[in-house]
């Protein structure tokens, strides 16, 4: 089983995307799912370390009373995992 994840600068602002990514990473670890990331106009380092727009998104999530800290850490861990996978890094030329 393969999954292609397209990560853009606004990706981390979407709770739905982060929830889905956490589930993908869970399946990767449990069932050996192969994840192929496409970094669309973002650097893999920013995804892995949650800098730039990813830091802004998490600052917003941390202020949201509907999101608990355990869930935020799960999302951070998922981004760190996927950010460390070799994939396509697409930028304007």
UniProtKB/TrEMBL annotation:
Cross-referenced SUPFAM superfamilies: Toll/Interleukin receptor TIR domain
Record's keyword annotation contains NAD: yes
PROSITE patterns reported in the protein's UniProt record: TIR
Name recorded for this polypeptide: TMV resistance protein N
Name of one Pfam family that matches: TIR
Species of origin: Morella rubra (Chinese bayberry)
Domain of life: Eukaryota
Biological process per Gene Ontology, one example term: signal transduction
KW NAD (keyword) present: yes
Keywords: NAD
Leader peptide range in chain numbering: none
InterPro entries cross-referenced by the UniProt entry: TIR_dom, Toll_tir_struct_dom_sf
Residues annotated as domain TIR: 1-93
